[in-house]
Amino acid sequence: MNRLVLAALVVSALFIPVGPAAGALAQSPATAASTVTVIRAPGRDAAARGGGGYPLALSGSGTEQTFETAADAAGNVYVTGQFTGTLDFDPGAGTAVGTSNGGSDFFAASYDAAGGLRWAFSYGSTETELGTGVAVADGRVFFGGVFNGSIAFGPAGTVTSAGSLDGLVLAVDAATGGFVWASAFGGALADGNPRLAVAGGRVFASARFIGPADFDDGPGTTVLNSVDSYDAALASFSAATGALQWARVIF
Predict the structure, then answer these.
(1) Which of 93, 168, 226, 236 could form a disulfide linkage to 245, CB 3.0–4.6 angstroms apart?
(2) pLDDT at 39
(3) What are the backbone dihedrals phi and psi of residue 13, each rounded to the nearest 5 degrees, phi first?
């Protein structure tokens, strides 16, 4: 079984509110690097390297943090986190530079078994966004994240937080990174940090929440109430549509 080891070297740290807009990465010249993020990802010849995979060095002008990685049966790697400033997602000779919208933005990227960039995208609003979880199954990649305000995924859909930070589950096409669906959950206080797992056509998200929080992003409501300060919840979403199936307080 392949193993993933993730390490990040942060040379500078800067976290400020982010600016408007969302969408795919803009292509622009790379900037001088102040941060280097190293992702040790599984390769087909990982055993020849002692099972440690290979390093991917991503450079940018601000601060990058990678929070979660996953891999599929073909050895493709999927990673999510946050960044400020600019970040070149292409570890090769080319460039695929993303620019944050004024501060900390969510990013997602995929690399093949040889370490080549397959696709990458980022999104941001007037507040803070970050990616916290990732799982892959049946030709789709599912990302967990945190956001505040409204995020527009083009004409396909928009999610809006209920107050402070809310949680997000995002599905994209594994081959292209194209948007499939998004579902948000939360309440007036800070919620989110979802971690994900996929089984039986369902996406399971574990997350923290405080106070009343609605986990149904559709026309209905499924409100959970925390007992004391932050509680943990487990929710099940349809992997095909993103519709909430159930949500429970677990502790």
Answers:
(1) 236
(2) 53
(3) -130, 125
